[in-house]
Amino acid sequence: MWGKKRISAMLMAVIVGVSAGMSQTVTYAEPTTDNTAAATDAATQQALTPEQQAQQEEQNVYNMEVQSNGWENWPQGPGTYGEAAIVMDAGTGSILYAKNIDEHEYPASITKVLTSLVAFKYGKLTDNVTFSNDCISFMQPGDSSVGLKEGNVISLEQALYATLLASANEAAYAVAENVGTNAGHDYNWFIEQMNEECKKLGGNNSNFVNANGLHDDNHYTCARDMALIGREVWRYPEFTKICQNQSYTIPATATTEEHVFAQHHKMLIDVNKNYYEYAVAGKTGYTSNALSTLITMADNGNMKLVCVVLRTHGVHIYTDTRELFEYAFNNFQKVNVAEQKKPEGVKEFISAGESKEAQTLEKENLSGNEYHVQDDGYVLLPNGVEFSDVKHEVTDVDQKSGEGTIKYTYDGHEVGSATVVFTKSYLKKLSDEEKSGDSKSANVDNSENNKSSGGKHFIKQIESKIQKAWKLYQKKYYEKPLKVRRIIAAEEVLLVVLILAFIISLLRRRK
Question: pTM (2 decimals)?
Answer without folding.
Answer: 0.77
